[in-house]
Amino acid sequence: QVVPATGPVTYACEGVDGAATGTGTLRRYTGYGFQDPQVVAGLGTGALLADNLSGCIFTYGAVSATNGMVSLQLTVTRESESISLYHQIHVDNAP
Q1: CA-to-CA distance for 39 and 84, rounded, in angstroms?
Q2: Which backbone phi and psi does 85 adopt, to 5 degrees?
Q3: Is the pLDDT of residue 42 over 80?
Q4: Where are the alpha helices (DSSP H) in 2-92?
């Protein structure tokens, strides 16, 4: 199930410009209705999940007709030092 009973959820990388400044954030937005197309602007303040980001990449790839893979890569930068975090999540796609 992609959308919880409480409604849609958006994870948004904001202010991540690729520079090594570490000024970006990752936020989780909830409490809004379905929108087509999906927008981030105007959803409220959201819950802060991570800050000091200089890189933030979400990707989804279909492995087969019934399986997929979501990848998340975050780069955290403080005082000119960076660390990259990478995680993959298996997704069961129901036809």
Answers
A1: 27
A2: -115, 135
A3: no
A4: none
Pick the closest to residue 61 from 71, 53, 69, 72 (CA basis). 69
d(CA 58, CA 92) in angstroms, rounded, equals 17
Dihedral sign, CA of 39, 33, 5, 24?
Answer: positive
Where in 10-80 does DSSP place strands (E)?
10-14, 24-29, 47-62, 67-78
Q: Residue holding tokens 């997704």?
A: 91
The edge-to-edge listing of strands for the beta sheet with 10-14 is 10-14, 24-29, 47-62, 67-78, 81-92
Nearest to 52 by CA among 80, 23, 27, 28: 23
CA distance 82 to 40: 27
- Chain segment 57-86, per-residue pLDDT in tens: 999 998 888 889 999 999 999 888 999 999
